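Quick one: structure for this chain?
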Amino acid sequence: MKKRGPIIGFSGLFLVIASLLIIVSVFPTSGITTNDNFYIPSMFEGMFNQISDNISIPPGEFGYFSYSTKSSGIPLLWGVQILDYRDGDNLSISISNIYGDDYGVFSQDGPIIFEMLEITKSDTLNFEIQNHGSTMIDVVVMLSEDPDNSNALSNPNSPFMNKILPLAISGILLILGVIILLIGIVLSIMDWKNIQNNKRNF
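Got it. Here's what it folds into:
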């Protein structure tokens, strides 16, 4: 009975290791620090209707990208990723259509931003991206129409699902593993204290 703590603790540690192995299988360690592993369009292949080429923007200057929607009355998921992100990189993203209607201005001071727009009719959206940082940056724009009904989500064999499902399982195993490991540690401490108290009583 006194071995319950270590046994439970090792069970939790096993789950943590299993979760890490799943992550490594999805994103191999041989290139975990390379840009391609954190290039969102590659990570979520098949999720987006259109992906821009790399857009280089000098400090204080603007980059532009246009997208013509194919449907109406649907949500549009759009995102911008700063490639090779560095501290201090900062963007503002202004979205309008060809008629001058404003969809909003969005600030980005992290490597990735995602937002949702409601598209009531077929439209051409213009993205005006300004670099407020002090260095040249490269960005990529991603767009997905009606993402909830995307084939990437409905097809269990899509590249997106082949990555997101293992990551979800890995996250669950990691949480369970940490909880069980902590329980094992607590029980081990309690058992050790009980043993010490019993020794004193004798």
